[in-house]
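Exam review. A common question shows you a sequence with its structure tokens and asks you to describe the fold in words. Practice with the pair below. Do the first one on your own.
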Amino acid sequence: MASLNVGNLGEYLREQRRSAQLSLRQLADAAGVSNPYLSQIERGLRKPSAEVLQQVAKALRISAETLYVRAGILDAERDRSEVETRAAVLADPTLTGRQKQVLLQIYESFRKENGFGSAEDGEATPGDPVDAPGGAPAAGTAGDSDSDSGPRRTAG
């Protein structure tokens, strides 16, 4: 039995695929998933993993977070500001892929520190500032004024 969110996800994916003028087979090939599996997702019969949604989003050139919300992986109201922040970082053409990844890791570590992050949706890794012993900021974070070797920070 398909949940309402999965059905909405399927309808949304179908609309996005048609807007991109892709056949089901073309999207399946571009996303690296099977044609029957993608068809089942579109019809609301399957709930894809976050990884599959990310692959489909990349193939459609849309935000993976949007698909996560549609699939019920992210709570639309609670996580709206997080989704918008992540989308803004990911959409910035002046940043490299590595810079975007690092920014998102730092962002998630601060959210966790403040009690809002979750282990399953973040990409924070050990060594993030929240993991510093004694609650002290980790090297290279705001509040680290003893070192001049790190990147320069500007107010703002």
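Now try the second one, then compare your answer with the model answer below.
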Amino acid sequence: MDKAAAEDASIAPPDLAALIECRKEVPDFLALEPALRDPLKAVALGWKPLPQVNQFMTEFELVKPITVFGHATSHIAFAGDSIMAILDLPDPRPLAHQLDLETGIDTPEKAIFGKQLRETEKTDPASGQTLIQAIILNVSNVASHPGKTLAGCSYNLDTEGPDPAPETAAPTPQAKAAP
């Protein structure tokens, strides 16, 4: 099987509702990358690419609607390490309250709520670096989508710990020739 065929085979229809509701893990989110890079792969999953209204979001219309947090939608978006449903809710506050989220920003123009649901840390014995995975539930609004609520999950993946050891430079010819 060639590389392209292997990549196509790896894109199974994802459980978008579970991803948006933070019921999956970081590798499940990362498995969507081929569909985000290639519009044809997105279309094969039943996602219709939409014009970019917000420079920080990649949006899709779903052929088949999904239900997340009790609300049906056929509009999803990706922003960095987040997958979100774009819901027909003019105010994000009731949903944030229902989900028991913490307030990040709450002004008349902007509302952001969230809560870290899970965090795992694993240390790579070879490098000594720690791999940190955090899964964060978010509800917000954004000026580019008036009258809508964004609700979804961030799948953060970070490393910390010792920096890789610097490579030692080979001696210069002048250093070898010194008396």
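Model answer, second protein: The first strand starts at residue 47 and ends at 49. The longest helix spans residues 3-9. Full marks require stating both points clearly.
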